[in-house]
Amino acid sequence: MKIAIVGATGAVGHELLQVLERSSLRFDELQLYASPRSAGSTLPFRGQDLTVQVTPEGAIPADLILASAGGSVSKALAPAWVAGGALVIDNSSAFRYDEGVPLVIPEVNGEAALSHQGIIANPNCTTAILAVAVWPLHRAFGVRRMIVSTYQATSGAGAKGMQELEEQTRRVLNGEPAQAEVFAHPIPFNLIPHIDSFQDNGYTKEEMKVVWETRKIFGDERLQISCTAVRIPTMRAHSEAITLELERPATPEQARELLGQAPGVKVVDDPQAKRYPMPLNASGEYDVEVGRIRQSLVFEGGLDLFVSGDQLLKGAALNAVQIAEYLQQHGALKAAEPARTTVPR
Ligand code: A2P
C-alpha cells in the first residue's frame, strides 16, 4: 500500500505529514510530490528524510493519492492518476460538485466514501468545521435555516497567506506601508470581507461553497443557508458565528449534551470562566471547539453558537486522512503488506 502526497511542501501538505505520522492507517511507502521549485528538498517523516519529487505529468505509482496542490493541478492530473489505478482524495474544489464524486466528512456521511469512481472530495475548510458542529443538531432538531459569519485565518490561503500576515505586520510595525499580494487588501490590523471571487448574486464563491457543500454533505437540498466569509489577521483556525432556525425547538442544555457526545466536537462553553472557542486554542487540535451556545433571540426555539476549528486539520489534512482510515476500516482500501518474518540463518 503506497501513499503519495501531491503538494507535500504546502501548508496542508505539512499537516498531512504530521497527521499521517500519528494515524493508525497501515501503509508501506510514502512518496512526496510538489512543483519543480521543491524538487530534491527533503521532509522528515517517522525519523527518515523523504525526498520531494517533481509531480509527473501522468500517472503516479501509488494506491492512494492525497492531493493538495490546488484546483488546477487536481483538475489537470487527477484523471491520469485514477486511470493509473490510484484512489484520489482531493483537497481542492475541482470535483466537489461532480456527480459520482462523494464529498465526505467521516463523522457525518462516511458511508458515502464507499461509492466512488476513483475520486473522493475533501470539503472546503469552512464547511467542514461548520458541518461537524451542526450535523448532530441537524439530526436531532432539523435545521431549517442557518446564518453564518466566518472569521477565517490567513493559512486558508496557504503558506503564502501566513507569510504575508507575518511580513506585512512587521512592515507596519516598522512604520512602512503594508503591500497586499495574496489578499485583496493589507491584512495586518484589518479584516477583509472578500474570500475567493464574487458571484453574480453578490456572494463570494467561498460563501457559496458553504451553501453548496453543506447541502451535499448533509444530503438535504432544502437547507437554507446564508454565509458572510471574512478573512482576519490570525495564523490558523477558522471561527464561525452560527445562527440556527430549527424544525423542532432545542434548548442550549440539550444542544450542549448532544454536542458533548458528538465525535470530532469539543464543547468549550463556560463564559463566566472566560471559556469559549478561540482560534489560538483550536490551533493544532483535532476537535472543533463549540461554545457560546444560547437560545436565539430571533428564531423561537433556535440556537446561536460559536465554533473554532483548525482548518488545516479538520478542514483539510485530518479529514483527508480520516477518509482513508474509514476506507481501510471498511476493507475498501488496500491494506499494507504484512511484515515479512525474517528467517534466521
Ligand atoms: P511548491 O512548494 O514546490 O511550490 P500552499 O497551498 O501552501 O500554497 O501549497 C501548495 C502546494 O502545491 C505546494 O506543495 C506546492 O509546491 C504545490 N504546487 C503548486 N503548484 C504545483 C504544480 N504545478 N505541480 C505540483 N505541485 C504544485
From TrEMBL:
<feature type="binding site">
    <location>
        <position position="231"/>
    </location>
    <ligand>
        <name>substrate</name>
    </ligand>
</feature>
<feature type="binding site">
    <location>
        <begin position="155"/>
        <end position="156"/>
    </location>
    <ligand>
        <name>NADP(+)</name>
    </ligand>
</feature>
<feature type="active site" description="Acyl-thioester intermediate">
    <location>
        <position position="125"/>
    </location>
</feature>
<dbReference type="Pfam" id="PF02774">
    <property type="entry name" value="Semialdhyde_dhC"/>
</dbReference>
<dbReference type="GO" id="GO:0009097">
    <property type="term" value="P:isoleucine biosynthetic process"/>
</dbReference>
<keyword id="KW-0220">Diaminopimelate biosynthesis</keyword>
<dbReference type="GO" id="GO:0009088">
    <property type="term" value="P:threonine biosynthetic process"/>
</dbReference>
<comment type="function">
    <text>Catalyzes the NADPH-dependent formation of L-aspartate-semialdehyde (L-ASA) by the reductive dephosphorylation of L-aspartyl-4-phosphate.</text>
</comment>
<feature type="domain" description="Semialdehyde dehydrogenase NAD-binding">
    <location>
        <begin position="2"/>
        <end position="116"/>
    </location>
</feature>
<dbReference type="InterPro" id="IPR012280">
    <property type="entry name" value="Semialdhyde_DH_dimer_dom"/>
</dbReference>
<keyword id="KW-0791">Threonine biosynthesis</keyword>
<keyword id="KW-0560">Oxidoreductase</keyword>
<feature type="binding site">
    <location>
        <begin position="37"/>
        <end position="38"/>
    </location>
    <ligand>
        <name>NADP(+)</name>
    </ligand>
</feature>
<dbReference type="InterPro" id="IPR000534">
    <property type="entry name" value="Semialdehyde_DH_NAD-bd"/>
</dbReference>
<dbReference type="InterPro" id="IPR012080">
    <property type="entry name" value="Asp_semialdehyde_DH"/>
</dbReference>
<keyword id="KW-0028">Amino-acid biosynthesis</keyword>
<comment type="pathway">
    <text>Amino-acid biosynthesis; L-methionine biosynthesis via de novo pathway; L-homoserine from L-aspartate: step 2/3.</text>
</comment>
<comment type="pathway">
    <text>Amino-acid biosynthesis; L-lysine biosynthesis via DAP pathway; (S)-tetrahydrodipicolinate from L-aspartate: step 2/4.</text>
</comment>
<protein>
    <recommendedName>
        <fullName>Aspartate-semialdehyde dehydrogenase</fullName>
        <ecNumber>1.2.1.11</ecNumber>
    </recommendedName>
</protein>
<dbReference type="GO" id="GO:0009089">
    <property type="term" value="P:lysine biosynthetic process via diaminopimelate"/>
</dbReference>
<comment type="similarity">
    <text>Belongs to the aspartate-semialdehyde dehydrogenase family.</text>
</comment>
<dbReference type="GO" id="GO:0004073">
    <property type="term" value="F:aspartate-semialdehyde dehydrogenase activity"/>
</dbReference>
<dbReference type="GO" id="GO:0019877">
    <property type="term" value="P:diaminopimelate biosynthetic process"/>
</dbReference>
<feature type="binding site">
    <location>
        <position position="152"/>
    </location>
    <ligand>
        <name>substrate</name>
    </ligand>
</feature>
<dbReference type="GO" id="GO:0050661">
    <property type="term" value="F:NADP binding"/>
</dbReference>
<feature type="active site" description="Proton acceptor">
    <location>
        <position position="238"/>
    </location>
</feature>
<feature type="binding site">
    <location>
        <position position="311"/>
    </location>
    <ligand>
        <name>NADP(+)</name>
    </ligand>
</feature>
<dbReference type="GO" id="GO:0071266">
    <property type="term" value="P:'de novo' L-methionine biosynthetic process"/>
</dbReference>
<dbReference type="Pfam" id="PF01118">
    <property type="entry name" value="Semialdhyde_dh"/>
</dbReference>
<dbReference type="GO" id="GO:0051287">
    <property type="term" value="F:NAD binding"/>
</dbReference>
<keyword id="KW-0486">Methionine biosynthesis</keyword>
<feature type="binding site">
    <location>
        <begin position="9"/>
        <end position="12"/>
    </location>
    <ligand>
        <name>NADP(+)</name>
    </ligand>
</feature>
<dbReference type="InterPro" id="IPR036291">
    <property type="entry name" value="NAD(P)-bd_dom_sf"/>
</dbReference>
<feature type="binding site">
    <location>
        <position position="96"/>
    </location>
    <ligand>
        <name>phosphate</name>
    </ligand>
</feature>
<dbReference type="GO" id="GO:0046983">
    <property type="term" value="F:protein dimerization activity"/>
</dbReference>
<dbReference type="InterPro" id="IPR005986">
    <property type="entry name" value="Asp_semialdehyde_DH_beta"/>
</dbReference>
<keyword id="KW-0457">Lysine biosynthesis</keyword>
<feature type="binding site">
    <location>
        <position position="177"/>
    </location>
    <ligand>
        <name>NADP(+)</name>
    </ligand>
</feature>
<comment type="subunit">
    <text>Homodimer.</text>
</comment>
<keyword id="KW-0521">NADP</keyword>
